[in-house]
Design goal:
This protein is an alpha+beta fold and about 350 residues long. Helices cover about 30% and strands about 30% of the residues. The mean pLDDT is about 95. The chain has eleven helices and 17 strands. The strands form three sheets. Strands 9, 10, 11, 12, 13, 14, 15, 16 and 17 form a nine-stranded antiparallel sheet that branches. The protein has a four-stranded parallel sheet with strand order 3-2-1-4, with helices on both faces. It has a four-stranded antiparallel sheet with strand order 5-8-6-7, covered by helices on one side. Helix 1 crosses helix 10. Strand 13 and strand 14 form a beta hairpin. Bound molecules: adenosine monophosphate. The site of adenosine monophosphate (AMP) has 13 residues, from strand 14.
Length: about 350
């Protein structure tokens, strides 16, 4: 167990790191962020910040010497950086979780190997392979880059064969997968946490609504179809965590289809659809992640009130801060980002009720 006063290194300095650092501080730990930006949101609440690129091996070595354990809040951290750190200091989750989650093809193969069902898909690394994939998968379909996709970026929809050229160009002609468009009733996510000893806890499953490819709300209770599938989704997600040897929070996103669940993607880190746990659950995802990384026992995840809704504040939605602060029912979280660009996650609010 990491004693209080120890330092947790966090790779990445966004709002997830900020909320991790707040939870770590409550348990008596210090946080040290490694991030290339000058003033990322996490550094407002962290003890130290190494400002360097992830390929700066000297900065990584100094960082490893300054911290007791390392975690990450961004899943696109280069695995070379994580390997270098892991030779010097414990890193949780490990590089295996990152490698699988960074590549949509590896992720889908891994989950299928464990018996999970995904959308029909085919690998695409050339324009000719895109035509072959369309013939195999059918249309409509979505072309997704294998790497660096998030919030709907790196994706292009193909409705007819005439869209293929534009889609291939839109994703920058990168290695990709073509996914058949799934007819789903809802989207939902399993948020779980696995400790160093293999113990796992998971939170009640929220239904997630996206707008423009970005999460808009996560709410509980989820609709009946999601509730009916939740046990199977949790079982699959727990198996994924176990087989990855994952330590910390893992988020798995699913489509609720009428004929059963389909796994969509995973994030080997705390997740936006788990922000409601800060006020809505006995222990939030950030605290249990810190506990896992620090080798502490995990705490219970029960819902505190029957109804919980987390609403993201995207772009100018946070400009209304006076009204948000004045709402006695809203737990307001603002991430300290200056510039409210369209599509940027500026904060969130959580509402609880009976
Ligand atoms: P992703 O980045 O893979 O989570 O995709 C972003 C959003 O696009 C998802 O949350 C879904 O709303 C939608 N989407 C992704 N893949 C599919 C699919 N195979 N069929 C239908 N909708 C999808």
């Amino acid at each position: 167990m990491l004693p209080p006063g120890s330092t947790i290194g966090i790779l990445g300095g966004g709002q997830l790191g900020r909320m991790l650092a707040l939870a770590a501080a409550q348990l008596g730990y210090r946080c040290h962020v490694f991030a290339p930006e000058a003033t990322p949101p996490a550094t407002d609440v962290c003890a130290a910040h190494t400002r360097a690129e992830f390929d700066d091996t000297a900065a990584l070595a100094d960082f490893a010497a300054a911290v007791d354990v390392v975690t990450f809040e961004w899943e696109n951290v280069p695995t070379a950086a994580v390997r270098q750190l892991a030779a010097l200091v414990p890193v949780h989750p490990g590089v295996h979780s990152l490698e699988v989650a960074q590549d949509r093809m590896a992720e889908k193969q891994f989950v299928e190997w464990l018996g999970g069902r995904t959308a029909p898909w085919a690998p695409v690394s050339t324009r000719a392979e895109l035509d072959e994939a369309i013939a195999r998968i059918g249309l409509p379909a979505i072309l997704k880059t294998r790497r660096f996709g998030y919030d709907g970026k790196g994706q292009a929809r193909i409705f007819g064969p005439g869209d293929a050229d534009a889609a291939w160009d839109a994703i920058g002609q990168q290695p990709a997968i073509l996914e058949g468009m799934v007819e789903f009733a809802h989207e939902y996510s399993v948020i779980l946490c696995r400790g160093v000893d293999g113990e796992q806890v998971d939170w009640p499953v929220p239904v997630n609504v996206h707008a423009g490819g970005i999460l808009a709300t996560s709410s509980l209770p989820a609709p009946a179809l999601v509730r009916a599938q939740a046990a199977d989704a949790v079982a699959l997600s727990r198996l994924v965590a176990e087989k990855l040897g994952h330590v910390g929070v893992l988020a798995c996103e699913f489509f609720a289809c009428k004929d059963g669940l389909r796994f969509n993607e995973m994030a080997p880190r705390v997740h936006n659809s788990g922000h409601w746990t800060i006020e809505g659950s006995q222990t939030c995802q950030f605290e249990n992640h810190v506990r896992a990384v620090a080798g502490l026992p995990l705490r219970p995840t029960d819902l505190l009130l029957p109804r919980v809704e987390m609403r993201n504040l995207i772009g100018d939605q946070a400009d209304d801060w006076q009204r948000l602060y004045a709402n006695p029912g809203a737990h307001v979280h603002l991430y300290g980002k200056g510039d409210a660009r369209p599509g940027r996650k500026m904060g969130h609010i959580t509402l609880l009720s009976r």
